[in-house]
């Protein structure tokens, strides 16, 4: 683990021989000028995850104004100028976690007068997010890197770092509500007031330990009010646009990224060319590789037909891409594994829930039950379109997140 005062250099790389990395905070190099010191006798500070966007910046300003001792932390996850073959010459602004975002976060910290550190987690990010993303795509599944990043880095590693600098909690700019229910003895994750900004779909993997030490101060606010709050505190980025792209995939071109990444790694894209077949097994043609397709895809199939065709299934083992009608995309059932339960300790009996199978999917009513100790099965009241292996299925009871898992 490395702490940097600037990008791209000035990192401290040293670690102890033990299992936990030794963190050396270089106060003279990294401390923000005029930052208020954190007293050893004061209440433990709150570590604010500062992404350089308006939401996390507003959280830092809000907590600072309330009198909390806070420290700003930014995760440096990916070199935006890496893999030139994946770029089309467009600027790097507008992506999550860009270098410009790091500089914006630092400027906010300077303005608020708080200590601020950049934590270099590029190696861990590549190991836990980028490489699994590549492997999943090459296997014919459609992964969600943002959820993996939340599970493995933005909460797991950030909480570890917070402890090591003396903070007992972290605060983020996510739109979600986190409350403790003493009757159940559990922390409950809920959808926010501003449903249009709901980010609970990406947070279903948080553990009870992580939730117990996490604050979501924006959970009861609407986005326009957050921008107004940032403006009231004089933050120049109050009207900064939200990031839209996955940080390591410029322009959203997954195929170009895969080509460039594997070339950098000295690897070849596996030969997964095979047959393009109908749901009845009729061969319509050949395809160049299963990584070129995702369930629900209509364009770029390489065949023509009297009626529109969609990708219905990707069979990695047989290298087959199954296509069919829009009606064929509808599913009454999904199965999910690698489950995480939030509002309940376990699913002991069938439960009526609403399920999101994509971030922007309208939650659909279903009956959820356990098929085995490791697999849940959901039967929808109404069939759902494009249930996609590799995506997350998140289960809701009203606004509460019951839990979630990965569609298989």
Description:
The strands form 4 sheets. A 7-stranded mixed beta sheet has the order 2-1-5-4-3-6-9, sandwiched between helices. Helix 2 (54-65) packs parallel to helix 3 (99-112) and helix 2 crosses helix 8. The protein starts with a strand and ends with a strand. The protein contains 9 helices and 19 strands. The model is unreliable at 1-42 (pLDDT under 50). It has helices at 27-30, 54-65, 99-112, 122-138, 145-154, 156-164, 208-212, 223-232, 254-264; strands spanning 2-4, 11-12, 46-49, 70-76, 116-120, 169-171, 177-181, 186-190, 214-215, 274-278, 283-287, 310-315, 320-324, 330-341, 351-356, 364-370, 376-385, 392-397, 400-407. The protein is α+β, with helices and mostly antiparallel strands and 408 residues long. The chain has 3 domains: 2-173 and 217-252, HUPs (Rossmann fold); 271-325, Roll (SH3 type barrels); 331-407, Beta Barrel (Elongation Factor Tu (Ef-tu), domain 3).
């Amino acid at each position: 683990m490395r702490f940097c005062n600037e990008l791209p250099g000035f990192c401290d790389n040293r670690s102890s021989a033990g299992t936990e990395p030794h963190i050396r905070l270089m106060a003279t190099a990294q401390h923000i000028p005029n930052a208020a010191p954190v007293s050893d006798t004061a209440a433990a500070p709150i570590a604010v995850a500062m992404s350089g966007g308006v939401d996390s910046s507003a959280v830092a300003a809000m907590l600072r104004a309330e009198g909390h001792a806070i420290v700003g932390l930014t995760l440096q996850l990916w070199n935006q100028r890496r893999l030139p073959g994946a770029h089309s010459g467009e600027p790097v602004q507008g992506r999550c976690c860009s270098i410009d975002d790091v500089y914006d976060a630092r400027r906010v910290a300077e303005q608020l007068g708080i200590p601020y550190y950049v934590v270099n987690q590029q190696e861990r990010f590549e190991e836990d997010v980028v490489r699994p993303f590549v492997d999943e795509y090459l296997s014919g599944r459609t992964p969600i890197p943002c959820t993996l990043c939340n599970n493995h880095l933005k909460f797991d590693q950030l909480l570890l770092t917070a402890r090591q600098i003396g903070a007992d909690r972290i605060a983020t700019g996510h739109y979600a509500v986190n409350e403790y229910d003493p009757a159940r003895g559990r922390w409950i994750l809920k959808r926010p007031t501003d449903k249009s900004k709901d980010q609970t779909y990406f947070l279903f993997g948080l553990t009870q330990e992580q939730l117990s030490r996490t604050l979501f101060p924006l959970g009861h606010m609407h986005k326009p009010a957050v921008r107004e709050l940032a403006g009231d505190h004089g933050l120049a980025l109050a009207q900064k646009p939200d990031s839209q792209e996955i940080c390591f995939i410029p322009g959203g071109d997954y195929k170009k990224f895969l080509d460039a990444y594997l070339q950098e790694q000295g690897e070849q894209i596996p030969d997964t060319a095979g047959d393009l077949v109908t749901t009845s097994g009729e061969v319509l043609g050949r395809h160049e590789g299963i990584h070129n397709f995702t369930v629900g895809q209509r364009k770029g199939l390489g065949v023509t037909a009297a009626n529109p065709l969609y990708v219905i299934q990707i069979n990695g083992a047989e290298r087959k891409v199954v296509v069919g009608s829009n009606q064929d995309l509808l599913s009454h059932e999904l199965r999910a594994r690698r489950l995480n339960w939030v509002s309940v300790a376990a699913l002991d009996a069938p439960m009526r829930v609403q399920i999101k199978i994509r971030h922007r999917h309208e939650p659909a009513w279903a009956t959820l039950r356990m098929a085995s100790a490791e697999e849940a099965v959901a039967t929808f009241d109404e069939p759902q379109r494009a249930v996609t292996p590799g995506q997350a299925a998140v289960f809701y009871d009203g606004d509460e997140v019951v839990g979630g898992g990965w569609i298989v």
